[in-house]
Amino acid sequence: MFKGETRRVVSVFLWYGCAAFFFSVVALMGCKSRALTEVAPSQGYPSENNFMQPGAEEGQWPMAAKDYANTRFSGLDQINGSNVANLKVSWTFSTGVDRGQEAAPIVFGDTMYVVTPYPNHLYALDLKSNGAIKWEYDPAPEAASQGVACCDVVNRGAAFANGKVFINTLDGNTCAVDAATGKEIWKTKLGDINQ
């Protein structure tokens, strides 16, 4: 397959590559494994945000990927292998925006929060009332931001903490909204779409 000098170079690279892999594995075997709670301890976080700690299971999904450890897993067991085939659509919700939908909804308590692609409206949906809209927040992003978006006008989602829902807008703002009322608490510009 390889001839002369090329064969020698490939052999040297393979030998060094295997040696590096072997020594990496040996070094890692000597490392003490750390529990997730050591990486993100609950000390220092407000008690109401303990649900975001790895391993916490309160039926909440307050941010993309569920928690700080990005587990993307719920320990709830009401839906399992024996009953998943019986699931049926209970209700649906349309954002009214016919663009890329990349933001996964988040859930806290009996409310689901959904943020749309541009114009980045944030909806609070009542899970106890078939997804009825509790409130809608319009951050009014600059229309010109649509022309400078690199990959459609998508949004990557919201996050919940301390009774607030946080979203980013296409024009470079971050907004904090009261989770109960939908009232804007603050809005700050983090980027300039013209630069």
Describe the protein in words.
It is globular and about 55 Å long. Among the domains are: 31 residues; 93 residues, Thrombin, subunit H (Beta Barrel), CATH 2.40.10.480. Strand 6 and strand 7 form a beta hairpin. The protein is 17% helix and 20% strand. The protein contains three helices and eight strands; from the N terminus they run H-H-E-E-E-E-H-E-E-E-E. About 22% of the residues have low confidence. It has a four-stranded antiparallel sheet with strand order 1-2-3-4, with no helix packed on it. A four-stranded antiparallel sheet has the order 5-6-7-8, with no helix packed on it. With 195 residues, it is an alpha+beta fold.
Separation of the first and last Cα atoms: 52 Å
Q: Report the β-strand fraction as a percent range.
A: 15-25%
Helix-and-strand structural type:
alpha+beta
Q: How would you name the oligomeric state of the polypeptide chains in this document?
A: single chain
Helix-residue proportion: 10-25%
Based on CA atoms alone, the radius of gyration comes out at 23 Å
Could you please say which CATH topology of one domain applies here? Thrombin, subunit H
Order of helices and strands: HHEEEEHEEEE
